[in-house]
Amino acid sequence: MSTEASPEIGTGASIAREAGTGIGAGVDTGVAAGAGAGAGTGGETTVAERHVVIGLGGIGGIVARMLVQFLHHVGGPAQVCLVDGDTFEESNRGRQMFRRLGPKSVVVAEELGQAYGDGVTLVPVPEYVTPQRARFLIGEGDVVFCTPDNHATRRVVERRCARLAETALFSGGNDGVEAGNPGTYGNVQVYLRKAGRDVTNRLSTFHPEIARPADKLPTDQGCGELLHAAPQLLFTNLAVASALLGAFYAWRQNVLAYEEAFLDILTGRAVPVRRMVVERSA
Questions:
Q1: Are 148 and 235 in contact (CB under 8 A)?
Q2: Which residues of 72-86 are buried (b: 16+ CB within 10 A; e: fewer)?
């Protein structure tokens, strides 16, 4: 796995802030990141023009493909930033989708640009998220999909979103196949902010594993730690990606009635959860 940015792309975090920059038709999205995220729960829905997908592995790769296809279909200018510092390798083929080896963000952007670049601007960011980069990657009004394989990144993304007045964060993951877990469980969380207030609870409020991550950011890990990852089940990745996009669509339609959902593909169960919002400072 590589932590280096692709030299032909340059500094992705800075590129991500420039409108109309990336693979595709170069649609002008209005320069500023985030052209306006609707509140979904408890507010009028506004179509967002800028989306950020963080993590392009088993779940995020599916989310990115379906999201871009959907945005292309509904029309209107849209920009999607594809963020991942990792590379596709042969060992990934059992649980991830890709046409060639190489930097994940670049490979996915190339693939989607060929099919949907006439309506969606794709910005590859071949870097891992850090607190510093998050400030450039995620701006007011952005819609963020967070699907990394570590909770440390989720915590960084959550903290960045908590400082914004308007944003929508959709986070999803699964347990992996290890330590007796069958790898069939997954969950989806939705964190919304409107007018500077939390509309739903933050990712870490009811999840101590996110509030106090036992893992590290990929940029802080050694080679051995980067190579170790719990095997994932392709079908669980697909189910979590579908649940993430379902929550996103419900939010867009202003009918989202939950902030978290738990699922198990073996039993076919999906349990939505709605909670009172716990007030917290940024």
A1: no
A2: beeeebbbbbbbbbb
User: Are the beta carbons of 171 and 154 closer than 8 angstroms?
Assistant: yes
Token code pair at residue 11 = 């500094």
Q: Note the helical H segments in 191-268.
A: 208-211, 223-227, 234-252
Q: What is the pLDDT of residues 40-98, one digit of tens each?
A: 444 444 444 799 999 998 899 999 999 999 999 998 789 999 999 887 666 656 566 66
CA angle 145–41–251, rounded 5-degree value: 45
Q: How far is CA 183 from CA 91, 197, 240, 264, in A?
A: 18, 35, 12, 9
Q: Give the separation between CA 127 and CA 12, rounded to whole angstroms.
A: 7
Evaluate if pTM is beyond 0.90. no
pLDDT tens column, 161-218: 999 999 999 999 987 656 667 789 999 999 999 999 999 999 999 999 999 999 889 8
Q: Do 2 and 104 touch, CB atoms closer than 8 A?
A: no
- Pairwise CA distance, residues 282 & 163, whole Å: 6
| CA 19 to the chain's CA centroid | 19
CA 67, distance to chain mean position in Å, is: 11
